[in-house]
Amino acid sequence: MRPKRRGGWGLIWPALLLLLLIPNVLPRLLAPLSGGEIPNLGDTPLWRLALVHLGLVLGAEAVVLALGVPLAVLVTRPNRAALTGLTEALTGLGQTVPTLAILALAVPTLGLGVRPTLLGLVLYGLVPVVSNGIAGLLAVDPALRDVARGMGMTPRQQLYRVELPLSLPVLLAGIRTSTVYNVGTATIGAALGAGGLGLLIINGLSEQNTSLVVAGAVLSGLLALSLDALIGWFAPRE
Q1: Chain centroid to CA 191: how far?
Q2: Which helix (H) or strand (E) holds 82?
Q3: How far apart are CA 212 and CA 187, in angstroms?
Q4: Boundaries of every domain in the chain
Q5: Which candidate, 59, 70, 82, places its Cα nearest to that of 129?
Q6: What is the C-alpha separation between 38 and 23, in angstroms, rounded?
Q7: Closest-CA residue to 90 (of 72, 108, 110)
Q8: Scanning 55, 137, 143, 171, which has its CA 20 to 30 A from the CA of 209?
Q9: Could you tell me if 72 and 133 are in contact, meaning their C-beta atoms sit under 8 angstroms apart?
Q10: Which residue has the higher pLDDT, 106 or 126?
Q11: Structure confidence by residue, pLDDT tens digits, 107-130
């Protein structure tokens, strides 16, 4: 089958996000919420808050991939089926325990700032990557493995040349889900001093400033949509 053309509609979200990060654009749009006056969204430029937020999410996702993909590979090897359910149950604890509880428990050990926030993001984002990685690898047709083995491929070659390429679409779906989850979760890290777009929401709630809350929510939402669209852009098509 010929590959499908990739639509460009998804790229509207990154473009809109970049537009709103231009100084004074978003404050002017939020003026009706402040009785016609252009609201003050703080001394830190919005683009800098967005970069900090993006750094938290990408840093956490790098750790999630470094842990999640090898773990999914490990438990899907032959004669290790018993580990699959156990692994999914253990990683699932990251989403069953409330994020605020994880962060609160991490603070006494790691202190305030980036480190407890990254821990919470990693635990929360690990589940979709591990679950989808396991599902994608287990869905590979056993006949294809037999063909690869008959061609003289080693188990390592089978993994890298057959199993991982075939499971990549399912794995990427898990990465997209994990990334979108963590954009929202990272806003909570602002309460611990990690910064990011959540700082607008925290300050807005404490000051009862609707413009700040809306600005933080809109920019966080656009960042999540942008990352989802960009990851989807590189996903393989049938």
Answers
A1: 19
A2: helix 81-96
A3: 13
A4: 46-233
A5: 70
A6: 12
A7: 72
A8: 55
A9: yes
A10: 126
A11: 777 777 788 888 888 888 888 998
Q: Which comes out higher in pLDDT, residue 37 or 83?
A: 37
pTM, 2 dp: 0.86
Q: How far apart are CA 227 and CA 178, in angstroms?
A: 11
Convert 86-103 to b/e letters by CB count within 10 Å (16 or more is b).
ebbeebeebbeeebeebb
- Residue partners of 167: CB distance under 8 A and separation at least 6: 133, 136, 137, 139, 140
* Residue with the two structure tokens 């919005």: 46
Alpha-carbon distance of 88 to 15, in angstroms, equals: 37
Range of 93-107, 179-193, 216-230 with top mean pLDDT: 216-230
pLDDT at 3: 43
C-alpha dihedral, 62 to 67 to 71 to 73, nearest 10°: 30
Query: Quick check: 133 pLDDT over 70?
Result: yes
Question: Which distant-in-sequence residues (6+ apart) come within 8 Å of 71 by Cβ?
Answer: 87, 91, 130, 133
Amino acid at 23: P
Give residue for tokens 């700040």: 212
Fold adopted by 46-233: MetI-like fold (1.10.3720)
Q: Are 220 and 53 in contact (CB under 8 A)?
A: yes
